[in-house]
Amino acid sequence: MAFKDRLISGLKHGWNAFVNLDNRDPFQMSEISYGTRPDRTRLRVANERSIIAAIYNRIAVDVAELQIMHVRLDEKDRFMEMIRSSLNDCLMTQPNLDQGPRHFRQDMALTMFDEGTIAIVAVDTSANPNETGNFDIFSLRVGRIVKWNTDTVKVSLYNEQTGKREEVTVLKRNTAIVENPLYTVMNERNSTLQRLIRKLNLLDAVDEQSSSGKLDMIIQLPYVIKSDAKRQQADQRRKDIEFQLKGSQYGIAYVDGTEKITQLNRPSENNLLKQVEYLTDLLYSQLGITKEIMDGTADSKVMQNYHNRTIKPIVQAIVEAMRVGFLTKTARSQKQSILFFRDPFANIPVDQLAEIADKFTRNEILTSNEIRQGIGYAPSQQAKADQLRNSNMPEKDLGNQPQPIKVPSTRVDPAQIES
Asked: How far is CA 328 from CA 1, 171, 337, in A?
């Protein structure tokens, strides 16, 4: 079902986080227009001017690779099936009018890294979530928490009807509040990342100062400057040289033979660059990433460690917050849950894929069609492609096997011999 059709069917008597839509057309077009996308996540200025934005984006893109689903579990809390619900439609198809599911997951990660804590708000629902817990979710948005209360939070949220960011107050129990698992490393005031940001800003300031176009030179005059008259004479001499340099096409000026000029605009020696390199390596180790991950040359072992140490805790925090905010106790007692899934064949080299596929099918772990789907091929129409069976073993069909022939016994009874 399309996003607009889904909203029409669910919001005729529904609820919107910004305004109750009972007496208002939910699809009234706004005349406000922008030259750039207004709902896009924008990092703070300090982060945008440094290499921190590249680290944020790399981790956020990898977080967006994982799929989040509304599922049903079995009696042993194992994944059994995907629930085709409006919530799952938001997680898998279209969370809101402006974003797709991958963009929505990347938005969650970027905002979390920048703010430390985010709120995922159910904007359009079938009923007022403040009055009842039985409601369907039709759209989701990522917001920044601007004020904390005892049982509510005030969230800065993008309103797709007005095209502006507005502040709304929502209940904590109906909102997925996610805190960055790497908060101590990334968002604390004196954390490694914040120290790196300050050092990078200082290094940028030094570079701007050194390339500002100033000559930074000292002119030694042939007389002692102690009186006001001599000081005025020296200022006049300095202005004359500035006028010559400014008015000359090639920046050439002349001085007296008794005057001496000392140039000062040489590179200043400081340890800022060494500190930046040290903090960058320290931040990489604390975040669980390497230079090979950033430039795309990491092998499967490095990527596996990176996913386990960095990506998995972040997605796990998002999923756990969604379970609390979007699933009631009744839904959880009915074995409903929210899980994330990762493509197991994403980082496997081609030369190892055939061996792994053979082991999985031979040991009856995956079917042939599940292997084909994992590597991007269409499923086979053969019946055995959906069966957990070892193709290297002969088929066991008792109905077609020949029955054993009964041979009469040749054993002689001793009693008959004596008689």
From this structure: 25, 14, 10
Buried b (16+ CB within 10 A) or exposed e, 110-134: bbbbbbbbbbbbbbbbbeebeeeee
Quote the CA–CA distance of 5 and 84 in Å, as a whole number: 16
The dihedral sign for the CA sequence 264, 265, 269, 275: positive
Place of tokens 């998002």: 318
**Phi and psi torsions of 325, nearest 5°:** -85, -30
Check if the beta carbon of residue 137 is closer than 8 Å to that of residue 113: no
Nearest to 104 by CA among 64, 52, 72: 64
- Residues with Cβ within 8 Å of 131's Cβ and at least 6 positions away in sequence, in order, are none
Whether the Cβ atoms of residue 380 and residue 372 lie closer than 8 Å to each other: yes
pLDDT grade for 287, boundaries at 50, 70 and 90: very high
Q: Which of 69, 96, 71 has the alpha carbon at shortest distance from 7?
A: 96
Where helices occur in 45-85 by DSSP H, the ranges are: 45-48, 52-64
pLDDT tens digits, residue range 339-360? 999 887 777 777 777 788 887 8
Q: What is the DSSP string of 350-402?
A: HHHHHHHHHHHHHTTSS-HHHHHHHTTPPPP-SGGGGS---TTSPP--TTTSP
Helical H segments across 260-327, by residue range: 272-287, 291-295, 300-306, 312-326
Residue type (1 letter), 399:
G
Q: Distance from CA of residue 162 to its chain's centroid?
A: 27
Express as a percent the part of the chain with pLDDT over 90.
Answer: 38
Check if the beta carbon of residue 152 is closer than 8 Å to that of residue 169: yes
- Unique residue bearing structure tokens 């022939």: 405
Q: How far apart are CA 283 and CA 196, in angstroms?
A: 8
pLDDT given at position 23: 47
